[in-house]
């Protein structure tokens, strides 16, 4: 068995130009792995806590303290440990000791955890997804179906729109590569269409467009026009998805949709969303209610749960406890999986496994502030997750993951399966 010989760390930059943590883990024999962690903007309160310096540098967002925790606390403790991700993660958790990883910082812990995972896969001379497959005990390798951001709003786009993400899911493609062909056609057609109508085509945090249009319905109509212009059939070739990020709409116990001029109770919010989903044949709805609006989630699930995918992001926060709570209450039917909500590779993989046991579809996801690190691509393939959400198809922090998946798909022809639209629960057909 190989051992950890050294752990290094740096303060580097993420895609929004704010500091983040990079760690490098070295093993016997000179094998190394390094990792950069992402950062959310529309974060939930149940996530593992990332450590920020809170001083005058970088508007308080420096991560020097997290880097020092790696250099002076984590590194000495990890030296000599077996090169086994479960053992390493266990020591990291013990060392932190807090329930939310606020002592050492989830950013410090996750950077070391992912870097360790990569170093071990190198030492064992296996692709990263193979090592993850072993850790996850997965029985198959899967190329995930992408869910791709086209139009952004909310915290990712200066509130140009009330809802955070309008996405498309390529249903008809037979491979990941073909899926990106369809997505790319829509994305670039949408750009031309927006520009032709005099809208801005500047990109939001995840690389989606953010036209200052009349509201949610106009944004959906613009996206549908692009789909149509590409000759793609809604419901057959592609379908729409939304991430409402409703936690961030709550004002005084009601949902405030400023651009729509709406101020809704949970019941009214569910009515509003159901109507949109039915009209436009939306097949996946994320965070339609806020993280702690469990009654709202109950109403939403009763209304739509057997017709479409209802994804919990802030709701579950990639937490085993939150997932079990959700399953007991029968709310949502799918969960977003973000490694930095959990804080270690092991807990992320265990959350994926728990989702599958509970009958919830896991969806591996990037963050709005991300990096060139492509770990989540290997995570989805190795843990056999059928869907992935990376943002739009532009900007290098996004393409690092798409490109990694393109290479993996090529490497695994005849080995890994791609499920396309079959990865989703489908229900509505559009009534528009
Ligand atoms: P975040 O957004 O990374 O800013 O939290 C992503 C999402 O809500 O899915
Ligand atoms: Zn979300």
As a percent range, the share of helical residues equals 25-40%
Low-confidence stretches: 427-432
CATH top level label of the largest domain = Alpha Beta
Number of domains: 2
Rounded average pLDDT = 97
What is the count of β-strands? 16
Question: What report would you give on this structure?
Answer:
This protein has 432 residues and is of the alpha/beta class. The protein folds into two domains: 4-125, Enolase-like, domain 1 (2-Layer Sandwich), CATH 3.30.390.10; 142-423, TIM Barrel (Alpha-Beta Barrel), CATH 3.20.20.120. It is 39% helix and 18% strand. It has helices at residues 64-78, 85-96, 106-123, 128-136, 176-196, 216-229, 266-280, 294-304, 320-329, 339-342, 345-358, 375-382, 396-411, and strands at residues 4-13, 19-27, 32-36, 142-143, 145-152, 165-170, 238-243, 250-251, 254-257, 262-264, 284-286, 309-312, 334-337, 361-365, 387-391, 417-418. Helix 1 (64-78) packs across helix 3 (106-123), helix 4 (128-136) crosses helix 12 (375-382) and helix 9 packs parallel to helix 11 (345-358). The protein is globular and about 60 Å long. Residues 427-432 have low confidence and may be disordered. The structure holds 2-phosphoglycolic acid and zinc ion.
């Amino acid at each position: 068995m190989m051992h950890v010989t050294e752990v290094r760390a740096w303060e580097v930059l993420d895609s929004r130009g704010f500091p983040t943590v990079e760690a490098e883990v070295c093993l016997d024999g000179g094998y190394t792995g390094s990792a950069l962690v992402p950062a959310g903007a529309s974060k939930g309160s149940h996530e593992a806590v990332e450590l920020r310096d809170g001083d005058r540098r970088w508007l308080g967002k420096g991560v020097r303290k997290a880097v020092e925790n790696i250099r002076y606390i984590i590194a000495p403790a990890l030296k000599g440990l077996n090169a086994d991700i479960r053992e390493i993660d266990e020591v990291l958790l013990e060392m932190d000791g807090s329930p939310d990883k606020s002592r050492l910082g989830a950013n410090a812990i996750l950077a070391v955890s992912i870097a360790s995972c990569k170093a071990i896969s190198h030492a064992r001379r296996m692709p990263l997804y193979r090592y993850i497959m072993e850790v996850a005990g997965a029985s198959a390798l899967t190329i995930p179906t992408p869910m791709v951001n086209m139009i952004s709003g909310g915290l990712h786009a200066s509130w140009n729109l009330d809802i955070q993400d309008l996405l498309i899911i390529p249903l008809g493609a037979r491979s990941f590569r073909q899926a990106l062909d369809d997505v790319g056609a829509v994305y670039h057609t949408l750009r031309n269409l927006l520009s032709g109508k005099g809208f801005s085509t500047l990109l939001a945090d995840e690389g989606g467009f953010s036209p200052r249009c009349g509201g949610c319905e106009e944004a959906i109509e613009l996206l549908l026009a692009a789909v149509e212009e590409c000759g793609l059939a809604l419901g057959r070739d592609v379908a729409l998805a939304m991430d409402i990020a409703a936690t961030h709409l709550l004002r005084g116990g009601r949902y405030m949709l400023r651009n729509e001029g709406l101020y809704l109770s949970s019941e009214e919010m569910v009515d509003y969303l159901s109507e949109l989903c039915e009209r436009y044949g939306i097949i996946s709805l994320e965070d339609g209610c806020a993280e702690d609006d469990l009654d709202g989630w109950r109403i939403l699930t009763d209304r739509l749960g057997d017709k479409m995918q209802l994804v919990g992001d802030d709701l579950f926060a990639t937490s085993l406890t939150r997932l079990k709570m959700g399953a007991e209450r029968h709310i949502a039917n799918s969960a977003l999986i973000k490694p930095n909500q959990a804080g270690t590779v092991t807990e992320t993989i265990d959350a994926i496994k728990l989702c599958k046991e509970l009958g919830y579809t896991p969806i591996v996801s990037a963050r709005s502030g991300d990096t060139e690190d492509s770990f989540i691509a290997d995570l989805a393939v190795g843990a056999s997750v059928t869907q992935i959400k990376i943002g739009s198809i532009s900007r290098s922090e996004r393409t690092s993951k798409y490109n990694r998946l393109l290479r993996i798909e090529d490497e695994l022809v005849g080995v890994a399966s791609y499920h396309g639209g079959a990865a989703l629960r489908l229900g509505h057909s559009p009534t528009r």
